[in-house]
Amino acid sequence: MSSIAVLGAGKIGEALLSGLIRAGHQPDTLSFTERHPGRAKELAGRHGVDAVAVAEAAVNADVLVVAVKPQDIEPLLDDLSGSVAERPADRGLPLVVSLCAGLPTALYESRLPPGTPVVRAMPNTPMLVGEAMSVISAGSHASEDDLSLVEELLASVGRVLRVPEEQQDAVTALSGSGPAYFFYLVEAMIDAGILLGLPRAAAAELIIQSAVGAATMLRGSESHPVILREAVTSPAGTTIAGIRELEKHGVRAAMIDAIEAARDRSVELGRAHEGTGS
Question: Which ranges carry the Pyrroline-5-carboxylate reductase dimerisation domain (predicted)?
Fold first, then answer.
């Protein structure tokens, strides 16, 4: 079983560690880096996994999962570039898995020793409850075995899909940011329930269970969402009156614009690091 080091133990990093343990990875094959000592001690105690320095992880782990924020990538790459080069010859190069939004595999390849395999992955926050949608793309040195290994790792916290890397900015906008759009919609619907005189707790229960049920129907049905929506939309009924207002206020167009804006921001994050390689 490969040894795995998660570099950056925020919510996503911890969720991955927890998912790997649930999937059967032994804690002694896992490690993590965390710059805040209190947080490191807390996670080590909770999961039985060692907190290590970046240099130690870079030298000893078979897989390095980069889970820091994009703005923190430069100092991490500075640490990694020298440490990976110091690995014993018989260990070979580690597989680097980037969970950082917007950062291309070429950035890592330009800063790490030649031939380092890199896989770019975009998970989302439902990883915290084992229901992530993760999308992976191979860098120029990543093999089929590397992709299969990353699929196995991320399958411990949800579903996994492969796409060409040029589609990753769209993926980031759609599924990476997607949970926030659903939360925003649910928030608005709960507020509407309160406006209509329902207690907040009752409105929340009504909307959250409706969301869970609708998602289950979408997952279990082969029908297009339009068909499922039409099944709820009776002629001259309450639903079509509500849909008319959504269309009148341009909700569909606003959602498309929001996703395009998120895609553009993902592109900007990648471009911010162009030219930083050696």
Answer: 165-269
Give the global pTM. 0.91
DSSP 172: I
Report pLDDT digits (tens) over 18-66.
Answer: 999 999 999 999 999 999 999 999 999 999 999 999 999 999 999 999 9
CATH number of 4-163: 3.40.50.720
Map out the domains of the chain as residue ranges: 4-163, 178-266
| Cα distance between residue 278 and residue 275, in whole Å | 8
Fold of 178-266: ProC C-terminal domain-like fold (1.10.3730)
pLDDT tens, position by position, 145-177: 999 999 999 999 999 999 999 999 999 999 999
Residue 36 φ/ψ, nearest 5 degrees: -100, 110
